[in-house]
């Protein structure tokens, strides 16, 4: 008898199948926490949201319903992926960039190594060389930016008290776990996205197109899920 044993060569990222984030405690008082970088939670002004009867807001609700009426398998997978948590996913993206840029350049003919130039980041060798000290700073910068962004977001959430789209228009489905005591504006995902994108584009300038693609994906996920406009 001949037995042939083989194994799959497919690489499966188990993190892609993480369940949707459903916090036991929503920390609705986070707007009173002490920021790290900002002088106060309201140091950056956020505009008053449009009234839910405003024509522009009604159009935004229509955009959500249009998405939800024709969700593709790929879009549903995007919702499932990002619903595991914005902080988690952006830190995975940062980890990917650190690994990608943690490769020393090829040596010069005289045996020396060229150094990346922050003033000319796209020239070889591409900036940065994400060695452990650089990576440690990158993780710290991103974490601090995300934290302060969330503190500010929760401060304004409790000031403006805007309900989520699925509560304003019952024709909209919520496709992520509900957080009944958390207001929708400003979106916690939007502030994490904005703060993280700004920091990462400075730290990894050669990867701007990739980062913008992930930002667009993140933004669209919240709209398609019926959580934010």
Helix content: 40-55%
Largest sheet: none
Q: List low-confidence stretches.
A: none
Number of helices: 7
How would the global form be characterised? globular
Estimate the mean pLDDT confidence: 93
Return Rg in Å.
21 Å
What's the count of strands?
A: 0
Structural classification: mainly alpha
**Separation of termini?**
63 Å
* Proportion of strand residues: under 5%
What is the N-to-C succession of helices and strands? HHHHHHH
Outline of the structure:
The protein is mostly helical and 229 residues long. Helices cover 46% and strands 0% of the residues.
Describe this structure as you would to a colleague.
It is a single chain. This protein is mainly α. It has a domain at 87-105 and 124-229. The protein has seven helices and no strands.
Features:
0% strand, 229 residues, mainly alpha
Explain the layout of strands and helices.
Elements: H1 55-69, H2 73-82, H3 86-100, H4 132-160, H5 165-168, H6 188-203, H7 208-224
């Amino acid at each position: 008898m001949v037995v042939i044993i083989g194994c799959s060569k497919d690489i499966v990222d188990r993190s892609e199948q993480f369940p949707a984030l459903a916090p036991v405690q929503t920390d609705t008082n986070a707007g009173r926490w002490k920021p790290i970088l900002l002088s106060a939670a309201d140091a950056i002004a956020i505009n008053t949201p449009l009234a839910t009867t405003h024509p522009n807001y009604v159009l935004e609700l229509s955009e959500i319903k249009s998405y939800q009426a024709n969700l593709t398998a790929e879009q549903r997978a995007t919702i499932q992926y990002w619903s595991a948590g914005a902080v988690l996913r952006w830190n995975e993206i940062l980890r990917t960039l650190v690994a990608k840029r943690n490769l020393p350049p090829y040596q010069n003919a005289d045996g020396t190594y060229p150094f990346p130039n922050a003033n000319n980041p796209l020239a070889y060798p591409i900036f940065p060389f994400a060695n452990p000290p650089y990576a440690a700073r990158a993780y710290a910068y991103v974490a601090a930016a995300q934290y302060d962004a969330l503190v500010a977001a929760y401060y304004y959430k409790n000031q403006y008290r805007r309900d989520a789209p699925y509560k304003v228009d019952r024709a909209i489905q919520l496709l992520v776990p509900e957080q009944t005591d958390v207001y929708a504006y400003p979106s916690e995902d939007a502030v994490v996205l904005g703060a993280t994108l700004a920091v990462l584009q400075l730290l990894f300038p050669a990867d701007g197109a990739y980062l913008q693609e992930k930002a667009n994906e993140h933004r669209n996920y919240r709209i398609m899920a019926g959580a934010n406009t």
